[in-house]
Specification:
Helix content: 55-70%
Structural class: mainly alpha
CATH topology of the largest domain: hpI Integrase, Chain A
Oligomer: single chain
Largest sheet: 2 strands, antiparallel
Order of helices and strands: HHHHHHHHHEEHHHHHH
CATH architecture of the largest domain: Orthogonal Bundle
CATH class of the largest domain: Mainly Alpha
Number of strands: 2
Strand content: under 5%
Distance between the termini: 66 Å
Number of helices: 15
CATH superfamily of the largest domain: Intergrase catalytic core
């Protein structure tokens, strides 16, 4: 049945990583519980709550609910619905955490260029100037640099356009010309294959240590956060930002109206003198 479930998921708009996560969750459940019933599901949920953060818990619960929905076709009416698991509440923080500052971003970008790490200079610039997720960055080709954008299908079947700003586009085009790269993916490893998300994360940590930056804020998604913060500072249109970020709901984007923890600390240090 799990194999049938996996094949069912492959026909959906879910990413490969999401499908792997869902299938792993179902296999793990059956390795520890004999059958799917209310007692087993409640026990599993309690175990998750004891060991994981809310986001991870909800991911596992979502996988189980998807499976219940799948097998519900062969169950008596209403039975699968009764077994459906409720998500745990995710406590929203009043600040953004571990976001690279604009000063550190510019410092890192400058050092990478000056020291000849041109490809990584462009990795950091593309992440911060486009708001790309790491998986999206790896899809960028020379053809996209030429046209100035990359169109991608989102999970909901909608098209999201990832724009490449003019300044970045012009400099990247010259870089690609110097490399005689006229087509194909632009970020490659020494074997001529696309770099991996893990490889990018590891290399960024290396540069953080090399240049004395905080490794906790030098990671791929941190530069996506920086894009959002800088965009709102320059052009305060949260609805447009939501579209550019590929958020399904504008509520997700509202977190960028909040200040980072370091910004809050700086303001408190400056304002509170009593």
């Amino acid at each position: 049945m799990v194999t049938k479930f996996q094949n069912h998921l492959k026909k959906s708009d879910l990413s490969k990583n999401t499908i792997v996560s869902y299938v792993w969750t179902i296999n793990y459940f059956f390795a520890h519980y004999e059958r799917i019933d209310k007692k087993s599901l409640t026990a599993y949920k309690s175990w998750l709550i004891e060991h994981f953060k809310p986001q991870t818990i909800n991911l596992r619960l979502q996988a189980l609910n998807k499976y219940l929905e799948f097998i519900g076709r062969d169950m008596p009416d209403g039975e699968a619905g009764e077994l459906k698991l409720k998500f745990v509440r995710v406590q929203q923080k009043s600040f953004l955490e571990n976001v690279v500052s604009d000063a550190d971003y510019k410092f890192l970008k400058t050092k990478l260029k000056d020291d000849g790490y041109t490809e990584w200079y462009f990795v950091v610039w593309f992440l911060t100037a486009t708001g790309a997720r790491i998986s999206e960055l790896l899809q960028i080709k020379a053809e996209h640099v030429e046209t100035g954008y990359l169109d991608m299908y989102t999970k909901g079947g909608k098209i999201r356009r990832l724009y490449i700003p003019k300044t970045l586009r012009n400099e990247a085009a010259q870089w690609l010309k110097d490399r005689h790269c006229v087509s194909g993916y632009i970020f490659l490893n020494r074997f001529g294959e696309r770099i991996t998300a893990r490889g990018v994360s590891g290399q960024l940590k290396h540069f953080a240590e090399k240049y004395g930056l905080n490794p906790k804020v030098i990671y791929p998604h941190s530069f996506r956060h920086r894009f959002a913060k800088n965009f709102l500072d320059e052009f305060n249109d949260i609805a447009l930002l939501a579209d550019l970020m590929g958020h399904e709901s504008i509520e997700t984007t509202r977190i960028y109206l909040r200040r980072t923890a370091s910004e809050q600390q700086s303001i408190v240090d400056k304002v509170v003198t009593w």
